[in-house]
Design brief:
By secondary structure, this protein is α+β, with helices and mostly antiparallel strands. The chain has a single domain, classed as Cathepsin B, Chain A (Alpha-Beta Complex), CATH 3.90.70. The chain is 33% helix and 10% strand. The chain contains eight helices and six strands; from the N terminus they run ααβααβααααββββ. Strands 2, 3, 5 and 6 form a four-stranded antiparallel β-sheet that branches. The protein has a two-stranded antiparallel ribbon with strand order 1-4. A hairpin with a 1-residue loop joins strand 5 and strand 6. 35% of the residues are buried.
């Protein structure tokens, strides 16, 4: 219990009553024991992947996936039609470097804002889209400003909000609105609210279009060599307990289930990914 109490203080976690606290402690204890066993079994192996206690350690696997792996929960061609975007939007082929460099890291070029925290809201789709807009603004105009994910949640017309969405729907809103306000002026509250129209006319981040990258690593590398790129990845059980190293695993059979949207900010042998969960 002492370990759990320290964890609660570190992560500023509170519960409505003792019964819920006991339930969460039971989940935490089971996860703690499982992590200890896994790391012990990994000793002496070549894998660098390591599990550890983190901000998700009082959540069940079902709770974790429902929040952080719900960013693509349906066929996007069905979803995007309500936003007036043709699902056959252009596929990027020749816009990027013909031969991608051996390695690149846009963090070194100041094209990436600090990692943010989406909280208990399935808004990774909005975070990844906004991060891509931030990277585009930094690359094209030398402006490195943290933009508003909350504006996307409140104003894009995505009724699901914290239950998942698509980056292209977020891009479409940015284009239709003429841009995004800053995070400072339209702050994140980790829940969908009513659009504050008094804050939507200030445009600190703009894009004029977007394209889909062909689904292969070579074209993805060419795109990332141009700017940071949002992608959806399959999320398995290992993500919840991730502490460090390289997590290897297969892809989900269902392309629209258990997806988390992230931003690829570089590569060099292995892709470098910045997460939105903080």
């Amino acid at each position: 219990m002492e370990e759990f109490e320290r964890w609660m203080i570190k992560h500023e976690r509170t519960y409505p009553n003792n019964s819920e606290k006991e339930r969460r402690f039971g989940i935490f204890r089971t996860r703690f024991e499982s992590i200890e066993l896994f790391n012990t079994q990994q000793e002496g192996k070549t894998s660098s992947f390591k599990k550890g206690i983190n901000m998700f350690s009082d959540m069940t696997a079902e709770e974790f996936l429902s929040i952080y792996a719900s960013c693509q929960n349906d066929d996007p061609s069905k979803y995007i039609s309500s936003f007036g975007v043709d699902s056959t939007y252009d596929v990027a082929k020749d816009d990027y470097a013909d031969i991608p460099p051996v390695s690149i890291d846009w963090r070194d070029e100041n094209l990436v804002t600090p990692v943010k925290n989406q909280g208990h809201c399935g808004s990774c789709w909005a975070f990844a889209a906004v991060a891509a807009v931030e990277g585009s603004m930094a690359w094209n105009y030398g402006i490195n400003t943290s933009l508003s994910e909350q504006q996307i949640l409140d104003c894009s017309g995505n009724a699901d909000g914290c239950k998942g969405g698509f980056t292209v729907a977020a891009f479409d809103y940015v284009i239709r609105n003429g841009g995004l306000n800053s995070e400072e002026n339209y702050g994140y509250v980790a829940k969908q609210g009513t659009c504050d129209s008094s804050k939507t006319d200030e445009h600190l981040g703009r894009i004029t279009g977007y394209k889909k990258v062909p689904p292969n690593e070579y074209d993805l590398a060419k795109a990332v060599a141009w700017q940071p790129i949002p992608v959806s990845i399959s999320v398995g059980a290992g993500f919840q307990d991730y502490q460090g190293g390289i997590l290897r695993g297969g892809c989900s059979y269902n392309p629209y289930k258990n997806k988390h949207t992230v931003l690829i900010v570089g590569y060099g042998g292995l892709k470098i990914i910045t997460r939105t969960t903080g």
